């Protein structure tokens, strides 16, 4: 079945669902800033007893076998870390700018509305463990917590989404807004797109809740309308495909699927055109007390906000008023060598200006990066046991149980015990805290620029106890830091969230004053 749909036709056919607006075919992007794009509505039929979503298996190239590293990188010994702390000049870590936790610090839900939170960040937030713990702290029922916007980072490694399952076929690529070369100046709400120009490329989403129960009658597909018509094939709950031709003015666009009953599985296949997916929008029910929209992308930097077009971004939030905007960046900026503090400050200032254009009234919190450690080669450890020289004092090394006689005319090779000289100790000590110093400086810059834009700052590094926190946390039982000394374990993210809640007043009585205990 083929349908050719455009917004004017849909508004006349589905007047009950879409308000009749005298916009015409040429809807400018600045109109989206005021009220968001008018959806194209496709009515679909839900099916009962829908099987679990299964992703098709695609062949992958065999991974090359990595050679055995004879001198692996390891966590530094405690003595090495202590030497670094003793040698380092103490630099004050950034302090959270919050006063005593009080009502209004993180904003409050309006009467009769849920408390709405939007979180942008890098891999620390993309994993979802930090925000998941924040939800648990509020002690809400499962039907009181919802996500309204799902970013277009489905199936990206390191990302956990509030979807039961999703499938992404080959020939799709991610366009993160922070990457200028392959980035997107017109991204979706998560500052990332999924793009394909390959006919047959497909996506699928299981919209049921964690228990496998279908709840949603509506899902909106957020995409970019191009001058060239876009043709898609949509299948719902295993039913036959319906081909849809989308043609409208260029810019942010929405295809709304409206079911006669709750939907389970939606499949979308590109027939022709360029498909740039911005994400999904899901309805928020009347029982919702907390709307938590998390937009995390591994490798992201705050420059994604600087690179994005604020009017295009605003189109996705025209009907959403967030009480709180959180931005957790800095780890990836601090990995650039050499770190340019002035360039980072300019990027952060431009990014926050853009964010404030979209969310001028929301409470704002910048989350400064935590501590990061350095893995060292086993041979580089300062306090390692000295190597044994088997030829010292005339001793001869055994070879398969027999002494190996040197070749005639050749001098036997000597095995030298390598120990760091005293001159290298200070350099090694400084190296172990190189990221700590950079993250402290990033936190200080966030404090200054955040205040200019009405944003509080909360420091993960402070929550870890300051300098050397990465090395202390990795040795906790259970470990709070991953062995890469960059990311945290699940208990680590949970502890950070609990500390954030204590420091910033993340309490139901402050955020949800109308919620009955």
Describe the structure.
This protein is of the alpha/beta class and 517 residues long. 24% of the residues lie in helices and 22% in strands. It has helices at 7-13, 29-35, 78-87, 123-126, 129-137, 303-307, 310-315, 341-358, 422-432, 434-452, 460-463, 469-474, 490-504, 508-511, and strands spanning 2-5, 40-44, 73-74, 115-121, 145-146, 149-151, 165-168, 173-176, 192-196, 202-206, 218-225, 230-236, 242-246, 251-259, 265-272, 275-281, 290-296, 324-328, 363-368, 376-377, 398-399, 402-403, 455-459. Strands 2, 6, 8, 9, 11, 14 and 16 form a 7-stranded mixed sheet that branches. A 6-stranded mixed sheet has the order 1-13-12-15-10-7. Strands 5-17-4-18-19-23 form a 6-stranded parallel sheet, sandwiched between helices. Helix 3 (78-87) crosses helix 9 (422-432). The model is unreliable at 4-33 and 385-426 (pLDDT under 50).
Key traits:
517 residues, alpha/beta, 7-stranded mixed beta sheet, 14 helices, 24% helix, globular
Question: Would you kindly provide a brief summary of this structure?
Answer:
The protein has 517 residues and is of the alpha/beta class.
Detail the topology: elements first, then pairings.
Blueprint: E1 2-5, H1 7-13, H2 29-35, E2 40-44, E3 73-74, H3 78-87, E4 115-121, H4 123-126, H5 129-137, E5 145-146, E6 149-151, E7 165-168, E8 173-176, E9 192-196, E10 202-206, E11 218-225, E12 230-236, E13 242-246, E14 251-259, E15 265-272, E16 275-281, E17 290-296, H6 303-307, H7 310-315, E18 324-328, H8 341-358, E19 363-368, E20 376-377, E21 398-399, E22 402-403, H9 422-432, H10 434-452, E23 455-459, H11 460-463, H12 469-474, H13 490-504, H14 508-511
Helix pairs in contact: 3-9, 5-13, 8-10
């Amino acid at each position: 079945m083929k349908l050719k749909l455009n917004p004017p036709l849909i508004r006349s056919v589905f007047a009950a669902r879409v308000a009749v607006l005298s916009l015409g075919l040429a809807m400018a992007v600045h109109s989206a800033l005021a009220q968001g794009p008018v959806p194209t509505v496709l009515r679909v039929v839900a099916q009962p007893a829908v099987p679990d979503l299964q992703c098709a298996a695609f062949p992958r190239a065999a991974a090359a076998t990595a050679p055995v590293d004879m001198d692996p990188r390891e966590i530094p010994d405690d003595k090495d870390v202590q030497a670094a702390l003793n040698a380092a000049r103490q630099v004050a870590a950034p302090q959270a700018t919050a006063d005593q936790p009080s009502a209004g610090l993180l904003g409050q839900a309006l009467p009769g509305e849920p408390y709405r939170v939007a979180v942008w960040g890098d891999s620390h937030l993309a994993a979802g463990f930090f925000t998941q713990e924040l939800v648990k702290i509020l002690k809400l029922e499962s039907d009181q917590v919802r996500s309204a916007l799902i970013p277009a980072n489905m199936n990206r490694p390191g990302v956990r989404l509030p979807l039961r399952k999703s499938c992404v076929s080959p020939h799709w690529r991610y366009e993160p807004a922070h990457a200028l070369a392959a980035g997107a100046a017109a991204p979706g709400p998560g500052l990332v797109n999924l793009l394909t120009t390959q006919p047959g490329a497909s996506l699928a989403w299981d919209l049921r809740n964690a228990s496998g129960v279908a709840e949603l009658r509506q899902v909106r597909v957020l995409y970019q309308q191009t001058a060239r018509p876009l043709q898609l094939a949509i299948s719902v709950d295993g039913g036959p495909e319906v081909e849809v031709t989308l043609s409208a003015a260029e810019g942010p666009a929405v295809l709304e699927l409206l079911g006669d009953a709750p939907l389970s599985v939606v499949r979308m296949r590109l027939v022709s055109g360029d498909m740039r997916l911005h994400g999904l929008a899901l309805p928020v029910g009347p029982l919702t007390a907390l709307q938590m929209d998390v937009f995390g992308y591994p490798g992201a930097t705050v420059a994604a906000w600087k690179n994005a077009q604020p009017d295009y971004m605003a189109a996705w939030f025209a009907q959403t008023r967030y009480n709180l905007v959180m931005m957790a960046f800095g780890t990836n900026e601090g990995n650039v060598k050499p770190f340019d503090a002035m360039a980072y400050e300019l990027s952060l200032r431009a990014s926050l200006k853009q964010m404030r254009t979209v969310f001028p009234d929301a409470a704002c919190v910048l989350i400064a990066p935590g501590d990061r450690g350095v893995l060292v080669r086993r041979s580089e450890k300062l306090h390692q046991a000295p190597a044994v020289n088997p030829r010292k004092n005339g001793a001869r090394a055994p070879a398969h149980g027999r002494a190996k006689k040197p070749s005639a005319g050749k001098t036997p090779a000597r095995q030298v015990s390598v120990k760091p000289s005293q001159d290298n100790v200070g350099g090694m000590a400084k190296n172990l805290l190189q990221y700590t110093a950079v993250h402290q400086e990033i936190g200080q810059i966030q404090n200054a620029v955040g205040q200019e834009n009405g944003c509080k700052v909360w420091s993960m590094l402070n929550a870890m106890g300051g300098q050397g926190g990465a090395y202390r946390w990795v040795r906790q039982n259970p470990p709070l830091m991953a062995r890469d000394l960059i990311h945290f374990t699940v208990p680590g993210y949970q502890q950070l969230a609990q500390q954030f809640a204590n420091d910033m007043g993340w309490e139901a009585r402050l955020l949800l004053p109308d919620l009955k205990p």
